[in-house]
Amino acid sequence: MKDQCRKIIEKFRPFRVLVAGDAILDMYIKGSSSRLCREAPAPVINVQDQEYNCGGAANTAINLAGLGAETWFLTVTGNDEHGKMLEKSLQSTGVHTNLIIRTEERTTVAKKRIMAGESILLRTDEGDTGPVSPGIQAALNEKLSQVLSSMDAVILSDYGGGVITGLLIEAIRRLRRPGTPLIVDSKDLRRFKALRPTMVKPNYEETVGLLNLSAVQDDSRIAQVRSRGKKLLDLTHAECVAATMDACGAFLFEKGRPPYRVPCIPRNNNKAIGAGDTFIGAYTMAYCSGADPRIAMEIASAAAAIVLRKGDTGSCSEIELTSYFRENPKYLLNLADLEKKTGELKKANKRIVFTNGCFDILHRGHVSLLNRAKELGDVLVVGLNSDTSIKRLKGNERPINSLEDRIAVLAGLSSVDYLVSFEEDSPLEILEILKADVFVKGKTYTVDRLPEASVVHALGGEVKILPLALRFSTTGLIEKIRKPVKRRHHAKAGQLG
């Protein structure tokens, strides 16, 4: 299955995708609290940081762009500061914003979360969510008619914010080219029956709402939903129904095929939101790339899992998705992957630490060095000499462990975030791409003896020489292993004599 998913992701192209739906600005006010205010039993937050992200249908658009799609976003925002922030964020990710209607009639929907440490204490919502006016509806239909026929796929992301009206649904029915994939995510999927969608994605609450059932807890959900695929297909008139159910995983229902279940997505972050938007974006890209719906489902679930490991409103990039389906997701296959990952890390303002070496036989000294290196920043990238590079440096009897084995061992260390290999004697090209904030080496080196030091300094980084754990070296370990062998060999030779 992993191999099939990888092959589909390799086929991702800049498909032309239209996302229509409700835009939300997700805001995070982050700080700390150590006291209550005098006038009420409420915590006082000392604000340290403020962030904003695209939410709702805007997050779906950003996820598509991150996966390589050429994305257009059709929505309505207020002609206000929140709308400008939303549009700026969309443009920074490459989403086309020329279809956005800005109006004085409405205010942009914004959801502000007040946080103390890792805890969300309060959320405030503002903005207009009623149906758009007839004038704005006419403008939406006009913009839709200009682009719909040229799209490879269409996504309707209905958060109940007033953009997806009955008139817009009817316009899509009239203008959509036969065979154009249509993916729908809505709190009320029955509204879209006339469109006969390619796929619809209800969450658990929406699924039981469609079926007119009471919600149940835990694994009981699996039995409750598994046998009702045909009814869901009948109720939505969709070709496929992807019902996501949090800790119970997800079900895919198709006409003429048995239910297909994807197991639970690991959830490491209870505050992450937007995984459903990511799911929709990844499914669409996979489907446009020729994936069977079951393979598309696996890829979409993996993308959602990636987002659930992040904080706040998350998105998934193509390189993250590719890495997920590799045997070792920490390993960056080539310099192009490294360049993409570097861009992501820099954009997220991560402090990057880089070190390199053979790491042929991993020992306590290596582990200690890597742990201390990680403490110098947010992300530790380790450069590994290739097997041929080690042979040039150490002789034909090295390496003891192949590059594949060394990658597997180092990837098991929590201190190591990413690994990249190089054929040269020195990782100068990697340093030029990575532009690490800190370059770390052990104390067997000095700055003036490091050919990499001038490159690091020229790129604005610093070089740190860290002390090594005493008595540990790969060469010493190899000699220690060989000594008993040599003694046995000499003893046998004496006996023969």
From TrEMBL:
Top-level class of the enzyme under EC nomenclature: transferase
Molecular function, one GO term: phosphotransferase activity, alcohol group as acceptor
Residue stretches making up the Carbohydrate kinase PfkB domain: 17-318
InterPro entries assigned: Cyt_trans-like, PfkB_dom, RfaE_dom_II, Ribokinase-like, Rossmann-like_a/b/a_fold
Record bears the keyword Transferase: yes
Record has Metal-binding as a keyword: no
EC numbers on record: 2.7.7.70
GO cellular component: cytosol
Name this polypeptide is given: D-glycero-beta-D-manno-heptose 1-phosphate adenylyltransferase
Organism: Anseongella ginsenosidimutans
